[in-house]
C-alpha cells in the first residue's frame, strides 16, 4: 500500500511539473509579437489521463491554443503590417495565473504524500527491527 501511494503521488508530481512548465512557457510568451502573415505563439495545455488500477496518472499529450492569436493595432512596431497590425498570442494572464496556482498546489500536495508515505515505510522498518 505504501509503495502504491509513492508511485501514484510520484506520477502526479510528473504531471504537475509538466503543467507548471507549460504554464511558465505560456506566460513567458504571452507578449511575443509576430507579423500578421505568421502564426502567433500557441498556448500549450497539458492533457492528463488516469492510469489503470494503481498506476496513477500520466501525461496523455498536449493541446494547443489558436494560432490566429489576436491582432493589435501598433503602427510603430517593427513587425507591423501596412495597416499597422501585429499578431499576439491569445493568452489570458489571469487564466494562466490560476492554472499556475493549481499546478503548484497539486505539486506540493503530492510531494507531501511522498514524504508521508516514506516516513510510514521507514517507521514500519523500525518496527520490524524491534
Supply database-style keywords.
two-stranded antiparallel ribbon; 130 residues; 4 strands; alpha+beta; two-stranded antiparallel sheet; elongated; 2 helices
Query: Strand order, biggest sheet?
Result: 1-2
Query: How is the main sheet built?
Result: 2 strands, antiparallel
Shape: elongated
**Ranges with pLDDT <50 over ≥5 residues?**
none
State the separation between the terminal residues, measured CA to CA.
22 Å
* Structure classification: alpha+beta
Structure summary, number of beta strands: 4
Q: How many separate helices?
A: 2
Count of distinct structural domains: 1
Give the oligomeric state.
Answer: single chain
How is this fold's topology laid out?
Elements: H1 2-28, E1 44-50, E2 57-64, E3 70-73, E4 85-88, H2 93-129
Helix pairs in contact: 1-2
